Amino acid sequence: MTDGKRRKGLAAAAAVLGGVLVLTACNDGDTGGTGASQSGQSQAQVDEAAAQKTSKAQITIAPKNGAQNASINNDAKVTVSSGKLTEVTMTSGEGKAVQGEISADGLSWKPSTALQRATVYKIAATAKDAAGLEAHENSSFTTVSAANSFIGNFTPEDGSTVGVGMPVSINFNKSISDKKAVQGGISVSSSSGQEVVGHWFNQTRLDFRPENYWAEGSTVTLKLDLDGVEGAPGVFGVQQKTVTFKIGRNQVSTVDVATKMMTVTQDGKTVKSIPISAGSPENTTYNGQMVISEKFKETRMNGATVGFTDSDGKGEYDIKDVPHAMRLSTSGTFIHGNYWGSRSIFGSVNTSHGCVGLADAKGAGDPNQQGAWFFDNSIVGDVVIVKNSKDKTIAPDNGLNGWNMDWATWKAGSVA
């Protein structure tokens, strides 16, 4: 080989070698005379050439990597521009997979179910652009903890049928300081068109009702849109739920303590009159409008749980099989069957510790008893009105008994 040919061959080899060094370089440092400058390319040109071989798909994962107190309902989401998602995996810190679904257009993904609180989640996403080049993105975040979140336990249940007196009652598990924000995330409406207003009894209880009883046959809808709502400093809601329930027939029963009779009406028409025995002169029954909140075919009633004790501290009564019991107050007022009293007391003498008693049979197995009939023909949410007792009117927050508050006062307890 002549020197001229040899020099040309070495120059070609150097050019190839220089190209390799340029493509693998990570910075613009001194290349010792063999880098981009010697190949005739600037580093910017090389970077641009490399970028042309990179996917144009841009993946965005929410929440941001390292986020804390993330929502368990809405925050987790993957989106892409200039491409389509091909695979998204989400796992908890323990490696448990979270089910999710890529949208039909391939532009987004989200979990199929609500996440758990106080849990670390990881998301890995892959997308392709029009040229088939892949892009990848990863993120990790932590959902809101139980200590930093609140929930509202509500009644009545979704899909239930209740009486015309049933309010929507929500009890929060944390004290709410920003009532306006929380109430703003809750709506209650009726197919009847009745105006429905919320009332705060305290920092943890919010009830909703119309001015008058719910319209018979109407449907009531409760919407909780509390996810991410800050109910107190650093404490966020996590619920996002819609609940519907139906209002049954209009049944209202009126207990007249003076005459010792109860009149049961449906749609304003009397369907039955039942002799009763209410609270004795020493232990009178509350007056007022009371709503049946629970029903028990049989239950135990112990006087010690409501302050009726003897000199030894034991309950003045402890009956372990009270039949057909229906709760009227949180403090222990029930309307229930009574098998231990003489039949002669019903309709003639008030003998109880404050409850309303109806003649019944031990074991709650005789459908012909007055207590059984009333139990079978009553539903949660029915109204029982007590009048002509020597006692005071029951407090509106003692049970589901907000009907004992006038409408103007009720509306004054709203912050909406």
TrEMBL record:
GO terms for molecular function: acyltransferase activity; peptidoglycan L,D-transpeptidase activity. Pfam families: Big_10, YkuD. Residues 1-25 form the signal peptide. One of its GO terms (biological process) is cell wall organization. The active site is at H336 (proton donor/acceptor), C355 (nucleophile). It comes from the Bacteria. Residues 251-387 form the L,D-TPase catalytic domain. Residues 31-51 are annotated as: Disordered. Keywords: Acyltransferase, Cell membrane, Cell shape, Cell wall biogenesis/degradation, Lipoprotein, Membrane, Palmitate, Peptidoglycan synthesis, Signal, Transferase. One of its GO terms (cellular component) is extracellular region. SUPFAM superfamilies: L,D-transpeptidase catalytic domain-like (SSF141523). Pathway: Cell wall biogenesis; peptidoglycan biosynthesis; Glycan biosynthesis. Residues 36-45 have a biased composition (Low complexity). This is Lipoprotein.
